[in-house]
Amino acid sequence: MYFSHPTAVIDNGCTIADKVSIWHFCHLMEGCIIGEASSLGQNVFVGKNVVIGRHVKIQNNVSLYEGVHCQDDVFIGPSVVFTNVINPRSAVNRKNEFQQTLIKKGATIGANATILCGITIGEYAFIGAGAVVTKSVEPYALMMGNPARHSGWMSEGGHTLVFGDKGIAADVDGQQYKLTGNKVERIN
């Protein structure tokens, strides 16, 4: 069973798992998939064939257009903007040119960020509020600004990582991470 507010519009052909919450004025289009225990805040639009994993939290006023795929445990802040065409024109139909955008497990996208289409946001990446993401993001990367620039590294718990001389960092939860070149991996 899932919960949907009476004002939500759910088109035929949606797949909605158990424990999902769909709040005021949401619209889910046919073919979308919503994973178990996910939450869609007020005024969320989920386009045709969009995939949302398990335990995803989507805050108010977010539109996920066709081509967006969110893996498990993703957080999407209020008023985040996704796109699906690189060069839109009102008079040119480009529905056959929609690009895929992949948000990997555990990633966070802060309020009012803009995510251009055709990119991947890596596992546990952290996109700061208001950032404009124009290219793919490495796992655990902290991205801020317009255009978004690499500003550091974040742990799976959402804490800033500071790497020592040997490229090792520990977060407040005791998890350890290793930085090799421009890649971070969890080591315990």
SSE succession: EEEEEEEEEEEEEEEEEEEEEEEEEE
In spatial order, strands of the major sheet run: 1-4-7-10-13-16-19-21-22-23
CATH top level?
Answer: Mainly Beta
Helix coverage percent: under 10%
Gyration radius over CA: 17 Å
Q: What's the N-to-C terminus distance? A: 36 Å
CATH superfamily: Hexapeptide repeat proteins
Number of helices: 0
- Could you give the count of β-strands? 26
- CATH structural fold name: UDP N-Acetylglucosamine Acyltransferase, domain 1
Shape: globular
Largest sheet: 10 strands, mixed
Structural class: mainly beta
Q: What ranges have pLDDT less than 50 throughout 5 or more consecutive residues? A: none
Number of structurally distinct domains: 1
Mean of residue pLDDT values: 97
CATH architecture: 3 Solenoid
Taken as a percent bin, the fraction of beta residues is: 35-45%
Per-chain topology:
Layout: E1 3-4, E2 9-10, E3 15-16, E4 21-22, E5 27-28, E6 33-34, E7 39-40, E8 45-46, E9 51-52, E10 57-58, E11 63-64, E12 68-70, E13 75-76, E14 81-82, E15 101-103, E16 108-109, E17 114-115, E18 120-121, E19 126-127, E20 132-133, E21 141-144, E22 149-154, E23 160-161, E24 168-170, E25 176-180, E26 183-186
Parallel strand pairs: 1-4, 2-5, 3-6, 4-7, 5-8, 6-9, 7-10, 8-11, 9-12, 10-13, 12-15, 13-16, 14-17, 15-18, 16-19, 17-20, 19-21
Antiparallel strand pairs: 21-22, 22-23, 24-25, 25-26
Q: What this model shows, in words?
A:
With 188 residues, the chain is mainly β. The protein has a single domain (3-158), classed as UDP N-Acetylglucosamine Acyltransferase, domain 1. Helices cover 0% and strands 35% of the residues. It has no helices and 26 strands. It has strands at 3-4, 9-10, 15-16, 21-22, 27-28, 33-34, 39-40, 45-46, 51-52, 57-58, 63-64, 68-70, 75-76, 81-82, 101-103, 108-109, 114-115, 120-121, 126-127, 132-133, 141-144, 149-154, 160-161, 168-170, 176-180, 183-186. The strands form five sheets. The chain has a ten-stranded mixed beta sheet with strand order 1-4-7-10-13-16-19-21-22-23, with no helix packed on it. A six-stranded parallel beta sheet has the order 3-6-9-12-15-18, with no helix packed on it. A four-stranded parallel beta sheet has the order 2-5-8-11, with no helix packed on it. β22 (149-154) and β23 (160-161) form a beta hairpin. The chain is globular, with a radius of gyration of 17 Å. The termini are far apart. The model has no long low-confidence stretch (mean pLDDT 97).
